[in-house]
Design goal:
Largest sheet: 5 strands, mixed, barrel
Shape: globular
CATH architecture of the largest domain: Beta Barrel
Number of strands: 8
CATH class of the largest domain: Mainly Beta
Structural class: alpha+beta
Radius of gyration: 20 Å
Number of domains: 2
CATH topology of the largest domain: OB fold (Dihydrolipoamide Acetyltransferase, E2P)
Number of helices: 5
Strand order of the largest sheet: 1-2-3-6-5
Distance between the termini: 78 Å
Low-confidence stretches: none
Strand content: 25-35%
Mean pLDDT: 88
Length: 172
């Protein structure tokens, strides 16, 4: 009997250790989610590929997808990114993991629908850049790299222009 109790305690101790390691790993791989507040709401509008409108407590709020940047409306693939986002979330209830508020008052966060991350799906489809200025998430970098390597979406273009560069050129 004493052997099984020792075995059970050893097993429980190992499980606790493994769970602790997994939680630390998750925080390291996606630190922005560590301090995220989450809530659910219905998507009522699509502004562009990386900005949507969601009902929160009966009010429309703009959500800017964290860690990615989709082509602008006037850029190649801008409309495709917007359509992809609409197809994935329009009219659906989504979970928003709020990580910040930007200078325009928009909520910045990760959006999930049917257990899928809209942010990650846009990267995988080749319809967004990993916004490395604001994110060091290695999983997101890998998704962009894979889309580039496979020439999916905007990566099929000979010389795609990052949205932040496009906006800067448009201003000057």
């Amino acid at each position: 009997m004493a052997e099984t109790e020792e075995y059970d305690l050893a097993m429980i101790s190992k499980l606790i250790h493994i769970i602790s390691i997994l939680l630390v790993a998750e925080a390291l791989l996606c630190p922005s989610l560590l301090h995220a507040a989450s809530w659910e709401g219905k998507v009522v509008g699509i502004s562009d590929g990386d900005t949507i409108k969601v009902l929160k407590d009966g009010k429309q709020v703009k959500i800017r997808l964290a860690a990615i940047d989709c082509p602008e409306k006037g850029q190649p693939y801008g409309q495709k990114a917007k359509q992809f986002t609409a197809d994935m979330v329009a009219g659906k209830t989504v979970k928003v993991w709020q990580t910040d508020t930007d200078r325009y008052g928009r909520i910045v966060g990760f959006v999930f629908v049917d257990a899928k991350s809209l942010n990650k799906e846009l990267l995988s489809a080749g319809l967004a850049w990993h916004y490395k200025k604001y994110s060091r998430d290695p999983e997101l970098a890998k998704l962009e790299f894979e889309a580039r390597s496979a020439k999916r979406g905007l990566w099929a273009e000979p010389d795609p222009v990052a949205p932040w560069e496009w906006r800067r050129k448009k201003r000057s």
